[in-house]
Specification:
single chain; about 950 residues; mainly beta; nine-stranded mixed β-sheet; six-stranded mixed β-sheet; 12 helices; globular
Amino acid sequence: MIRARTTWAAATAVLTLVGIAPTAAHADPRPPGSSTAPVRTAPKDTAGLPPGWRITGTGAAAALEWRSPRPVPPGDARVEFHTDGSRLGVPRPDDDGRTFRLPLKDVPPAALESPSGLQVRAAGRRLDGEPGAAARERRPAAAPPAKLPPLLPAGSVDPGRPGRFATTTGEYTLDSVKLPGLPAPVEMRGVVVAPEGATGKRPLALFLHGRHATCYVPGQDEESVTIDWPCADDARPIPSHRGYLQDQKLLASQGYVTVSISANGVNGQDAVVEDGGAQARSSLVRAHLARWADWAAGTSAAPAAVRQSPKADLSRVLLVGHSRGGEGVARAAMDSLYPPPASQDGRPGRARWTVRGTVLVGPTAFGQNPVPDVPSLTVLPGCDGDVSDLQGQLYVDGTRGVSRGRALHSAVHITGANHNYFNSEWTPGLAEAPASDDFWEDPESPDPVCSAGSATRLTAAQQHRAGATYVAAAARLFVAGDDRVRELIDGTGRRAPSADPARVLTHAVGAGRGAGFLPDDGVRVTGGRLCSAVDPDPAVACLDEDTQGASPHFAYWWPERETGRGAVALDWTAPGTATRVRPRAPLSLKGADSLALRVIVPPGSTGTRLDVSVTDAAGRRATLGGVRADGLPGSERTASYWAQELRVPLTAAGRAGVDLRRVTALELTPRSRAGRAWLMDAHAWHPGTPRVRPAPLARVDVGRTTVEEGDSGVRTYHVPVRVSGKGTGTVRMYVMAPDGGAEERLVTVRSGRPFADVAVKVTGNTRYGGDTSHDLLVKAVHGTVVGSYSGGVTVEEDDPMPEISVTPVADEVTEGQALRWRVSLSEPADVDLGTVLVAVPDDTRPELSTKDVDHDWLLERAGEVPDGEVPLSRLDWFVLWAAVPAGETDTEVTVPTVTDEVAEPTEYLGLRGTDDWGRPQGPLLTGAVLDAP
């Protein structure tokens, strides 16, 4: 494991980006006589790469690279490369915390033909660019302060109040476990907080932290923080698992046994696994639960921290996960009901526990495949600077129609909360290791909602108290079955005073909701439009790219265009223009108290008013009443296009004689002046939390197989997909082409039966072409759950890469002429290959400078040209590279010089090739420019 921080590139190379890749190889041995390292490159001249980007590496390590001018703290959101609205891939981070590389084999050539569209994103936010630049361009010079949502009435109970028990705290450390896909064993460590004096078996709450830095050096600053595993000899593990003691003590005082487990070993290695570590985290959670089951049954000796606690009741388990830990506990809940394939699971075996519910705090949702029959509460921090698109909303939206719809799935939006402060070990002033606010500050342009000190931003103490209150609310409803708590989390509009002064809004699906108007393919919309959550066409997308801010409901997944996710968009310029929604078949609202709508209005807007009407199959129509909504506090940097739950009683329909058993249309009529709104769904609603019985669902897991290309013939391979569980259902699959396109299909699956055949034809040859990935993505639609959602067939190149050499064509010229070198291949290749050359300083003689070469040419290659005269070797982002087109054997790289009226000595330019990490290596190439006579 390389722990050294590479700093050379900061002075000599452009920023780099890295993707889902095996561990980067060290530099390949260079062929005898070769003067540069070979690099797979774009098919055409791509000198116009934006500042911070370059091509680097050799052989299988050839990569598109981006390097940040500032450290990118290890976080839960994945750093991704995008181009023109579509995702290229997930780069691999370097040890320096700034550099990211995506294997060039995963980059479609078209992305480099138009490189100006390259972007670096994490959960929707741009990383490549000056912080706050986009916001400053759009925001008035003095942005008005954001307004808080109104204070809701207090609920009948307050789960944030401590219980009657004193608490006791201890820790345990067990033997590490080996998890599939991770090279090093993972620690088995937990901190236990339990009630003192409690009798009988007590429910168990297990906490799992998210992806954070793993190691630090005491007494040093953030530069010493790394995400290695195991930690270096002079470093200590960051105790992220101790960051929820406040939450644990609250639950323990109320009679729960709690344990918070450490997952540094997963965090330090999850960059090498395709799912971001979700399955490894699930395996780790279930490994701990298995030990707790042993201790409860008395089949093994319990550690002291467990012996001093009441016996845990494994039939009543609550799982709490933060960030990637949220996705991990959601997968653990799924795996407990529908076991994963043994080959991908680190803890195979029957679950001896029952998960009653999950709490997901600022979670990632890389797979966007929730567990429909396990109740959940998802906390969405309004100022999340890490998982900033609030993609955890999909744990609510993604459950609709998948199973019976009896489980409650709640979203809890906390205005002014960031990502880190739910964990005290990630909070400055409280943490043992260096810590920071994840919502980065731009001193030149403070964010009106989320900058520290704004009226809408919470302090760390306020935020953590609110988070603990809603964890306790979930425990009291899901585990203890106290239905009085439901009104705090299901959109009824009541607050828990213990969370004050936090302003908390909620909505939900499932539980007491019946038939619903859903924006799916069978719906007909007039007066508005059925829009798509993810689509590159602005006329189809619910929000276009120019929208200030984002929506959690429309968080990006993998394909650039998704089917089956959307909303009904309303856009009006005067009151009275109705939007009518007709489902494919009449709906029954019989027996419901109200119609519950989830409606998005623009952030910061006020006074949006809509009349709500229904029509039955006989044409009888009734206006149920009006609803009003104000937008959430929002800015260009927040995901504040979030749906609020609005309810209207159904009593007016009864008085009008509407047959609620056969409702054929829903109408929304604006009563306010010009505005916009989006209807996410509308459901029949009545109070209560029904008992949940998990349905027998089919489970789908996609695998990956790696094959060699071969020298001749055509071979057909099949993407490995396993269908287990019980029952029949449907999934939506996306077959991703190597060039970035996607084919979407709706597939019926049956447990124990083969999945739809996804065949990949591989044509063998004897010319080098690089590795190729044919990927498959799967998402649950109905009657299914999806564990491993991505996989495919990777075709490994088995032919050697041609040797590359660079020879001078004109390496001594008079100013005004071009320096030229020929880049040659020993034989043609099936892909474009080339070389990267960096300028190396030479203090012994005059160097070629920014004033000696063509300005436009230099601007294309360096991204910016400083004032004054600077040697080319001293520019931060200057590199030369040339591509030999597929099927050809040579090309030229040139440096155009210019004439001037200044008498000067001969000036020199020294160039060297680079290794896999962008550092100079190999023989020196020298160009000399003589003064014009």
